[in-house]
Known about the structure:
By secondary structure, the protein is α/β, with parallel strands linked by helices. It has one domain: Spore Coat Polysaccharide Biosynthesis Protein SpsA, Chain A (Alpha-Beta Complex). Helices cover 33% and strands 24% of the residues. It has helices at 29-38, 52-63, 81-92, 110-122, 159-165, 185-194, and strands at 2-8, 23-24, 27-28, 43-48, 69-73, 97-102, 127-132, 135-142, 170-174. A 7-stranded mixed sheet has the order 5-4-1-6-8-7-9, with helices on both faces. Strands 2-3 form a two-stranded antiparallel ribbon. The radius of gyration is 15 Å and the shape is globular. It starts with a strand and ends with a helix. 41% of the residues are buried. The mean pLDDT is 89.
Amino acid sequence: MIHGLLLAAGASKRLGQPKQLLEIQEKTLLEWSALALLQTCDEVTVVLGAEVSACHKIIKRLQKDFSNLHEYKCEQWEDGMGSSLAAGLEKIGSNSHVLVHLVDMPYINGFHLKYLINQFLQNQNLAIVSNFKGQNAPPVLIPQSLLYLFKNWKGEKGLGTFWKEHPELIQPVELGLAFQDVDTMEDWEKMKKQF
C-alpha cells in the first residue's frame, strides 16, 4: 500500500500569504497537490498547521468525492517542515510506503507521481527521490523499511537532509522538469505564467 503524505502546514512567511490557498485555474495549491496524490495513492493524509480552518473547508469539500482523504493538524507545525513530516508519518503509522509531496508544487501531477511509483516498484529497498535536471527534491517515496529514520525528525530538517546523509538509500529519478516551488511573490508570479 502507498500512502500519500501532503505537507501543507507552513505559514509561508517569505511569501507573505498562505501558499496553500493561492489559486491557479480556480483551484488552490492545496487542491492541485491533494488531487495529484489522490490519483495515485491508496490513502492520502494532509498535514495542516497554518490557516487550518480554511484548509479544513477545502479538504471537507474534496472528501465528498474521496473517502480516502484524511487530515491531521500538527501541533508543532511552527517548528518547521521536519516536525510536520515526523508528525504526519507518526499519524500514518509504519504499515505502508509513503509518498511525501509538498503543497507548493502544483505542476507535479498524477503522471509524475505514477512514474515515481513505477520506479519504486522495481526496487522497494530504496527511497525514490525526484530529480529536476540535477537537483534532488520532493516528491519522495519512502519505503516502509526506512520510515524509522524519520521518527525523530524535528524543526526545519527537511527531506534534503535525508538524501545528503544517506545517499546509499536513495535512487534519484529524473522527471525532466526544472525545479520550482513557491517561496516568494516572484516565484508565484513566475509559476502562474508557466502553468
